[in-house]
Amino acid sequence: MAQRLPARPGDPVEAIETPALVVDLAAFESNLDAMATAVAASGLRLRPHAKSHKCAAIARAQVARGAVGICCQKTDEALAFVDEGIGDVLVTNEVVAPAKLARLAQAARRARIGLLVDSEHGARAASAAASRAGVTLALYVEVDVGAHRCGVAPDAAGALAAGVAALPAVRYAGLHCYHGAAQHLRAPAERAAAIASASEAVRSATASVASAGLDTAIVTGAGTGTWTLERDAGVWNELQPGSYVFMDADYGRNVRAGGEIAFAQSLYVIASVMSAPTPSRAVCDAGLKALAFDSGLPQVHGRGGVVYAKASDEHGVLEVAPGAAPVTLGERLWLVPGHCDPTVNLYDWIVAVRDGRIEAVWPVDARGALG
Amino acid sequence: MAQRLPARPGDPVEAIETPALVVDLAAFESNLDAMATAVAASGLRLRPHAKSHKCAAIARAQVARGAVGICCQKTDEALAFVDEGIGDVLVTNEVVAPAKLARLAQAARRARIGLLVDSEHGARAASAAASRAGVTLALYVEVDVGAHRCGVAPDAAGALAAGVAALPAVRYAGLHCYHGAAQHLRAPAERAAAIASASEAVRSATASVASAGLDTAIVTGAGTGTWTLERDAGVWNELQPGSYVFMDADYGRNVRAGGEIAFAQSLYVIASVMSAPTPSRAVCDAGLKALAFDSGLPQVHGRGGVVYAKASDEHGVLEVAPGAAPVTLGERLWLVPGHCDPTVNLYDWIVAVRDGRIEAVWPVDARGALG
Q1: How many Cβ atoms from other residues are within 10 Å of residue B262's Cβ?
Q2: Is the dihedral of CA B23, B26, B30, B32 positive or negative?
Q3: For A193-235, what is each residue's pLDDT tens digit?
Q4: Do residues A179 and A194 make contact, with C-beta atoms less than 8 angstroms apart?
Q5: Which of B87, B117, B85 is nearest to B101 (CA)?
Q6: How much is the ipTM here?
Q7: Residue ranges of A 61-90 with Cβ closer than 8 A to chain B
Q8: What ranges in A70-183 are assigned the alpha helix state H?
Q9: Considering only CA atoms, which of A81, A340, A49 is closest in space to residue A220?
Q10: How far apart are the C-alpha atoms of B259 and B191, rounded to whole Å?
């Protein structure tokens, strides 16, 4: 069931079999450097989200640049990184299934493992699993700061934190305050308003924790769309951006505020044209199984007048504008995915290229790690 | 990178780790039987599309019920099935990359391999690969019968068929006449009109082939949404439905015509509730990486008042109507995917259940076979 290796180090990019997931190393490294430098300058901790890349080689590159560890979204995703030697993983999600908690507790023998709770039930289940394994799990109370997904109300954070602090084999590690819905608000003012409101929620939550007699400890959150706002808000001390390593067409639609870093698009799906039935229409080999479509269609990079117009399972229909250079059979197109995270999850390999050559082929270690 | 085995044969369904892809065997087998019986009664050939399931165990069940072989959509998908012993595979897609054609030609030593052409270029490339391998590839001329994706115009079919017939190591095997865009037209009258128009295109194409001095041979096409129309049109002699084995929420929105078989929903993603922060909102563990969203949101099966309202990477937000039974932490939900094909491609395993027990766990042999 493993995907064929699409290329080998040393090959020219023309040798990559399509469809393939490709990272432009120059853009990728400039993104890593820019984020690491900016967060270091702020004095905050950087814990990048690895759900975007699912790739240990990239996590190691982030840790080498100063990240305190990584975030994951699922138990099996976290285990894939621990297996690859990442020593500090926060699962930014509630885990209540006993079998999954048992696996996380086992992993805590080899790495620092954190996870979120938003219920007494979840805290007790984590405590039971950690007790059984003879380890300590770090529990973060998730606070609903505006996304209306998981999380307790801000003024309930203290009670749950105190509940965690009273349980064996777990420790209260801080607050998880992530506003996912704010990341793709297009206008800077909308994002600023959302994070201003989230900041108020964080203040309420930290007051609630203080009134329960606990230190706030870590306040972690933020994503690629808003991280400068959390950085400057004065209430977060750890930032979790993930998509900045790659970027995507949807993030590309955000209007950047003054002072925001212009992360470069580094992720592409290379596709090949397999049919060109009319001058105005061609069809490439990357469709619904090669790209995620939840955030819109991919964009064709650097090919004026050619638009990816429609997808079916294994076809991408391209519209060719009058006057555009003709699209030819076998021609390769570099597509910018609509949404990087679920696109990466469709691939077993990331082909890392520099100056027209393949420098490395990285396994997507946590591909498909849903459990 | 392989997914954890979500369950073992003999386990109760409650033991399946979530998210998991599950097939209800009773519904699944009734779908297989109903299609096999109906197509056999018509005297036409059945060549089910395996892009829906990517699973050799299912392909074998289809062949055991009389299918002449299977369709695939990609080279590596076809090879996965040949490796599993399927002896007759038609790649219902153009293949022009020399490396892929070389692999298909190698496979033709072990199985009957067909593929589509809609250009002289494609025909010559296939001929060259087959010559090099010392095999014969079956080439089908794809005709655009209304989908406006790949394919030659109907009156150009004869010239391309004659071109194929003149090349070494390939043979003209017939016409591929599939109207993908018609499958999800909601009203029976719309689908009937689309296939009536496609039938006219097929007649033009067969006339074109006849005037080139060739037998029409096979005319293959149709899908789950329209197969009774192609069956009854008198111009197709081979049918390619795929989704009928599983069905999905999008096919469920088609209004059925009188006489159409009511295929049962057999495919589910089982998810678990991991957060229930308010009485009206809960969150499950199946999001954008556990389900395909190109054809809409999944439906919650058999749980009145609970609606899957929104997805993020690994979260599904559920709205709970006033008066519905409360959603509880750890509760399992059976979700009907919006679109079966790209959802199956997210899993390495299909858990086959009957009467509340796991009967088998089938590998998704061609998962991720994009090449």
Answers
A1: 9
A2: positive
A3: 999 999 999 999 999 999 999 998 999 999 999 999 999 999 9
A4: yes
A5: B117
A6: 0.97
A7: 73-74, 76
A8: 75-83, 98-107, 120-133, 157-165
A9: A49
A10: 14
Q: In whole angstroms, how far apart are CA A262 and each of A257, B224, B369?
A: 10, 46, 35
Q: What's the pTM value of the predicted model, to 2 decimals?
A: 0.98
**Tokens describing residue B36:** 């096999």
From CA B298, how far away is CA A26, in angstroms rounded?
39
**Beta-carbon separation of A341 and B289 below 8 A:** yes
Contact (Cβ atoms closer than 8 angstroms) between residue B224 and residue B244: yes
Write out chain A residues lying below 8 Å of B290, CB-based.
370
Whole-angstrom distance, CA of residue A226 vs CA of residue A193: 11
Distance between A20 CA and the closest CA of chain B, angstroms: 8
- Helix, strand, coil fractions of chain B, as percent rounded to 5: 35, 25, 40
What does the alpha-carbon distance between residue B194 and residue B202 come to, in Å, rounded to a whole number? 12
Q: In whole angstroms, what is the distance from residue B301 CA to residue B286 CA? A: 14
For B278, the closest chain A residue by CA position comes to: A152
A10's tokens: 């040393």
Distant-in-sequence, close-in-space partners of A37: CB < 8 Å, separation ≥ 6: none
**Among A344, A369, A370, CA closest to A83:** A369
Distance CA B13, CA B17 (A): 9
pLDDT value for A259: 84
Q: What is the pLDDT of residue B258?
A: 87
Give me the residue from B149, B272, B368 closest to A283, CB to CB: B149
Query: B137: how many CB neighbours lie within 10 A of its CB?
Result: 29
- Give residue-wise pLDDT tens across range B315-371: 999 999 999 999 999 999 999 999 999 999 999 999 999 999 999 999 999 999 999
Q: Which amino acid is at B34?
A: A
Q: Are B352 and B315 in contact (CB under 8 A)?
A: no
Query: How far is the CA of B29 from the CAs of A127, B6, B348, in angstroms?
Result: 44, 22, 21
